[in-house]
Amino acid sequence: MPGIGERLLYPVAKRWIAGYELGDAIKAAQDANSRKIRAIINRLGEHTPDVNRIESYTQEYLRIPELLEKEHIDGTISVKPSQLGLAAEVPLYKKNLVRILENSEARGLDVWVDMENSPYTEHTLQVYRELFEDHPKMGVCLQANLKRTEKDVKSIVSIGGRVRLVKGAYPENGEIAFKDRRTVEDNYLVLLKILFSEGDNFVVGTHDTMLIEEAERLGKEHGRTFEFEMLKGIRDDMKAELVAKGHRVGEYIPYGPEWYNYSKRRMRERKRNILLLARSLFG
Ligand SMILES: Cc1cc2nc3c(=O)[nH]c(=O)nc-3n(C[C@H](O)[C@H](O)[C@H](O)COP(=O)(O)OP(=O)(O)OC[C@H]3O[C@@H](n4cnc5c(N)ncnc54)[C@H](O)[C@@H]3O)c2cc1C
Fold it and tell me: Whole-model pTM?
């Protein structure tokens, strides 16, 4: 039974999530494809040490590629390590990720790994490196708000790995993270330049106009393969504009009953969303 906070938030949150069921995500993916946008499907849920739940999340990710194929959807999946076993033990996560990779790759999909809060960073990257040689299409998200990320971008790029660069959605402490907006943007620019000069086949994950324009400029200069990706329900105008200019664009589509934490992160990102919530409460 959802608590009062969750019930109040849902009318606002539903713009960012496809719905409760996998079928809702498939519909949202078809909608994205109709706008010439690739769908990146994520089953919500995180930080679970419960082996039964971990297995059920894994099973669900094993079903999605078959459905995408059946429905002729241009898309793939993005998984959260802490829903697949990393919140329990590293070997369990690794085993489940391999099951998902083998099943998805058999259908030609490139699996992406989300980056969660900092207690998971090291193991997420360790497992990525260990599996990369056998799964070279796999990509991993890196966060510009973390001070360690420049080193991580360089090391992932040096093995030929694929990076989705984002600002970072989790509150982190000032010892390990840049705290103010401007410094995070500056670091994003530094990392973007590294990707364009040394990497390939990466993802620019942002809705920030300044960063998108800079990526377009760097794209012309360096001629790399890359894709812009944005979240469902945010900046549809910009997505359409980039598609019209001939860029590859992806939309990250989360679904599932565990939408609360994800939506709180979207709330935090923008003060205007708090106003939307207030308006939905008081008409
Ligand atoms: C494809 C994709 C995958 C991601 N995966 C991860 C991940 O694995 N790990 C992780 O930590 N983070 C992830 N993120 C989230 C990311 O870290 C940021 O929290 C999020 O993208 C907001 O940062 P921004 O770069 O869009 O810049 P912001 O400065 O937050 O936003 C720039 C502009 O975009 C619009 N905008 C941004 N957010 C909202 C919103 N919530 N509602 C309405 N408008 C908004 C506004 O116009 C705003 O001015 C992902 C983001 C994307 C796009």
Answer: 0.95
CATH number at residue 79: 3.20.20.220
Residue 12 within any structural domain of the chain: no
Residue 69 lies in a domain: yes
The answer to whether the CB of 64 falls within 8 A of the CB of 24 is: no
| Nearest Cα residue to atom 5 of ligand 1 | 114
Q: How far is the centre of ligand 1, averaged over its atoms, from the C-alpha of 275 (Å)?
A: 18
- 16 alpha carbon to ligand 1 midpoint, in Å? 11
Cα–Cα distance list, 170 to 117, 120, 123 (Å): 6, 12, 17
Q: For a pocket test of ligand 1, which of 206, 210, 277 has the largest count of ligand atoms closer than 8 A to its C-beta?
A: 206
pLDDT in tens, 181-207: 999 999 999 999 999 999 999 999 999
Tokens of 20: 């409760």
Helices and strands, number each (H, E), in the chain: 11, 8
Give me the active site residues, please: 114, 164
Task: Tell me how far CA of residue 126 lies from CA of 130, 221, 234, in angstroms.
Answer: 6, 32, 32
